[in-house]
Design goal:
This protein is an alpha/beta fold. Helix content is 33%, strand content 26%.
Length: 248
């Protein structure tokens, strides 16, 4: 069966010029000879309007050009369709793409997509909300919230929001229940990770895998702020040895 691609491009994600990106997508896809269609992303994440198009046009691949938020929304809305998903990373962090080994260069990312060697990737639900990367509670959730609402994106904005929240952050009481035990802890944040990083190659769960059927739980326990800063720097650099808790 001939492959047919449907591209979803977020026109405002990250800092890249999306007009140039669309030109690259059109040029490279025409070279390979695949029929394709291009649609802009939608703010509410509801892509049900594409259901009849996917069926009528016999779409085989949906390629999402955007950041982690756009990717999560699109896959959530379209995950029950019988298609393969591809990513062109052009967000601020691109954590999911980098965890999967997808390069940021759009031409190189497209070459991977055109080869068509897809593999099953894990996803999970928290409070009936779909996620394919990671979910945070506490400090990192506040940073993510502030970053999502910032007028300017990019790594510098993320670092700024992190520093702004760091000095006012507090520990929260958490109860984690698994099939085997219950863990009560005071922590600044907890990350439930399917991928190994927040984005920009800032590692949070060094051993996390997108395809192992497991979620890695990283707990930053209550401690003095200097220790938190040191442990966080060790963690995002990938050097910290975390205690692993697997939840199926």
């Amino acid at each position: 069966m001939q492959r047919k691609l449907l591209y979803i491009i977020n026109p405002i994600s990250g800092v890249r010029n999306k007009k140039n990106l669309q030109e690259i997508v059109e040029r490279e896809t025409k070279k390979i000879g695949f029929p394709f269609f291009i649609y802009p992303s939608v703010a509410d994440g509801d892509y049900s309007f594409l259901f009849p198009i996917i069926k009528e046009k016999k779409i085989t691949d949906i390629v999402i050009a955007g950041g982690d938020g756009t990717i999560n929304q699109a896959i959530n809305s379209l995950r029950k369709q019988e298609v393969q998903f591809g990513i062109i990373p052009c967000g601020s962090g691109n954590g999911l793409a980098f965890s999967a080994g997808i390069p940021k260069d759009p031409v190189k990312a497209l070459k991977i997509i055109f080869k068509g060697h897809s593999k099953l990737t894990d996803g999970f639900l928290i409070n009936k909300q779909f996620a394919c990367m990671l979910v945070g509670f506490g400090f990192d959730a506040k940073v993510a919230h502030d970053f999502a609402n910032a007028p300017k994106r990019g790594l510098s904005t993320y670092v700024k929001k992190t520093l702004q929240n760091f000095f006012t952050s507090k520990a929260y009481s958490f109860v984690i229940t698994t099939k085997e035990k219950e863990i009560k802890t005071e922590a600044f944040f907890i990350s439930v990770a399917n991928s190994n990083q927040f984005g920009n190659n800032f590692t949070i769960a060094p051993k996390a895998s997108l395809t192992d059927g497991l979620l890695d739980v990283v707990i930053m326990t209550k401690q003095n702020k200097l220790s938190v800063l040191f442990q966080t720097l060790m963690q995002i650099s990938g050097f910290h040895k975390v205690q692993r808790v697997d939840i199926v």
